[in-house]
Structures are given as C-alpha cells and as structure tokens.
Amino acid sequence: MLVVELKNNLSVRELGGKGYSLGVLIKNNFDVPKGFVIISEAFFKFLKYNNLTERIEKLASDIDKDNFQERSEKIKNLILNGKMAEEIVSEINESLSKLNLQSVSIRSSAVSEDSLKASFAGLYDTFLNIKSEPDIVSNYIKKCWASLFNGRAVAYRIRKGFPHLEGMAVVIQEMIPAKVSGITFTVHPLDKKNLVIESSYGIGDMIVSGKIDPDYYIIDRKSLEIKEKKIKRKDKMSTAKEGEIKVVEVEKRLAEKQVLSEDKLKEIAKTCLKVENLFNYPQDIEWCIADSRLWLLQSRAITDVTK
Q: What is the CATH number of the domain that holds 225?
C-alpha cells in the first residue's frame, strides 16, 4: 500500500512529520479533518519509475551555497515533468473516491520535518482548496514532492548538514471552510509559565505567511487566565471559494473586533495543552474553527524551547 488513511500505525519514516503527528491526534480523539497519506515510499517509486533517482542524486551530491538555487530548479523540474505510475494513480483515485469531497488541502510531509532536531516550518509547499479530481490532485502531489528542493529548504539542509534526497510523504485532507484560524505556541519563548495564541478571520495562510497582523494573547498555562492581549486591525482574510483561495475585505465593524471570545480562547488553550501532554514536548499548533468546532490542522515540536 502506497496510500493509507490518516489513522494508521505507520512511522514518521513512512508518513513524514506532519502525517505522523496528525495520525497520533486522530487516534487520541482530537478533531482532525479526515484524509489520507501518500507515504514516502511512493515518492521513491515515482523517482525510480521515471529513472530520476541517480540523476537527482548526482545533482544533489555537491550542492553548496553557491550553486543550490540552480541545482534546486533543475531537480524540481525533473520531478514536475515526471509521470505517475499507474499503481500510485490507482490508489490515489480510490482514496479520493472514498473521501467523496469537492475540495481538499494537499500538504507536504517530509520525513525530517517537525522533528526535535529541526523545523522546516514554511519551507515546503501546502496547497489549499484544490478540486478533488484525480488528475489535478496528482499534479499537486508532484508539486509537494518537488518542494523538497525549494531553495530555502535546500539552504536550510546545507546549514544543518542534512542529506538532500530524503523521504517526502503527502497529506490529503478535507478542506475546512474556516471562519477563524490561528496558531498556538504552548510555551511562550520568554516565559515558560504562559502560552501564546494568535488568531484572525478566515483561513490561516495569511497568519502563517505573515501577511496579516493577528490578534495576540498571552495566557497562563495553569489557570488559563488571559495575562495580555493585543487586538489588531484585521482588514483582510483568506476564504475558500470556487476551487481557489480568495483574499477578501473584512467588514469594518469586525476588522478591529476581538476574533475569539474568552471561552473559546480557554477551549483552544486547554485543547492545545492536551496535545502538548500527548507529545510530551512544547508544540506549535495550527487550528481553525468552522461552525463553532475546533479543528487541529497541524502540530509540531517547538525546537528552540525546553519546558
């Protein structure tokens, strides 16, 4: 099997960091959008099927800070122009049919991603609100594989001394039409007694990319008391519409309003601390809210914080 349900018993090596952590959350009854994972073995089979393994190994063998951009583009183009083997296509089609959704999110999940030794946050590609059609999804899976050689990711691996050709899984999930999204850091970087929540309207890509200044809260980890809050003007938001992500204006009456109620803030804080307890390590958690329901989208270790 090259495609498995998110709820499975496979390892990080097969599911990548993102896929593995989501599977753990599902098995522990947290609300996670349903979906499946194209395991890392499928990527290596794709390379072999297209006779790319040795070519990419050769191009990657002497990548350095002077040539990484040129080499990275060559490798990405080789992957993007490759053909999917029928074995992989068949399993993807079957899994999409079972999901029976109009649109999905498609997320890269590298094997070394979100580990305690390194964080590749934002270096690999995620695609949101993609039409759930086999040919379209297959092309975006190739884009996720190719993002293993995004320039910034390659530069990061050079600094860390990591190998360049590693496993890359891909997570396919239901696209949640979020009304509110945010990020929780379960430990404040400067004060271990507190946690941090950032939130804004719509889908969370604008927060992650830094394109909007979200509301900011510091919350006591034990009492869940709000110690500090900064309510920002949030005049734009991303929404999932007509098979794409659109940036729209936020109504003036809402733009300067606090996005989350205090009860919702406490619910998010409490849930995220449970996630931290599950992984036994401080977490950087992406979440969203739709129809008052809190969905967990991703959880990774905070590599530069120790409890």
A: 3.30.470.20
Structurally, how many domains does the chain consist of? 2
The CATH number of residue 133's host domain is: 3.30.1490.20
- State pLDDT tens for residues 201-251: 999 888 888 888 999 999 999 999 999 999 999 999 989 887 788 899 999
Tell me if 286 is assigned to some domain: yes
- For the stretch 251-281, pLDDT in tens is 988 999 999 999 999 999 999 999 999 999 9
| Same-domain check for residues 124 and 220 | no
What range does the domain containing 87 cover?
3-174
pLDDT in tens, 93-132: 999 999 999 999 999 999 876 554 555 566 899 999 999 9
The answer on 244 and 123 residing in a single domain is: no
d(CA 12, CA 159): 23
